[in-house]
Every structure is written in C-alpha cells, then in structure tokens.
Specification:
By secondary structure, this protein is of the alpha/beta class. It has a three-stranded parallel beta sheet, with helices on both faces. The chain is built from four helices and three strands; from the N terminus they run αβαβαβα. It has a single domain, classed as 3-Layer(aba) Sandwich (Rossmann fold), CATH 3.40.50.
C-alpha cells in the first residue's frame, strides 16, 4: 500500500527503495511507482539477508538501480540532488 500511495500521490517525484524482505507485495507496488515515473533502488543480492522482494522487483522491471546495502544512502542522495536541479 505504501508504494501504491507514493505512485499515486508523487509519481515521478517519488524515490522508491526496496531492501531485504520476503514476498512480492512490495515488488508490485514498486513497479507501479516505476510506471508512474519514479526512480527506484533495489538492494543487491550480495548484501540482502532475504533476497525475495528485491529479486522480484528487479525481475518485474520496477528497479532502476541495484546496489549493495552500504551504497543505498549514497545513491539516494545522488538522485535527490539531481531531482532538485
């Protein structure tokens, strides 16, 4: 529901991040965000304790960037900085 709300309310102004967790509900919502124009980050398999949802998000085409956990904050800041310009 969170990602669906972000897709609806913020569209291309949103930034989605999906990390370690099981299931695929978030992957569906992240795809909706992507289709609404947002940029989305998924955690790389090498650092995910449970790779279920990031894997599904990538497979469905909802993730634009895939990075290890220690680099996610750096990517968020880089994307946010570009969006402000």
């Amino acid at each position: 529901m969170l990602f669906r709300s972000a897709a609806s309310a913020a569209g291309r102004n949103a930034l989605g991040v999906i990390m370690t967790v099981m299931g695929d509900g978030g992957a569906r919502g992240l795809l909706e965000m992507h289709q609404a124009g947002s940029l989305n980050i998924a955690e790389h398999e090498s650092t995910a304790v449970v790779y279920g949802m990031p894997k599904e998000a990538i497979a469905r085409g909802g993730a634009d960037v895939v990075v290890p956990l220690p680099r996610i904050a750096e990517r968020i800041l880089a994307i946010a900085s570009k969006k402000r310009r």
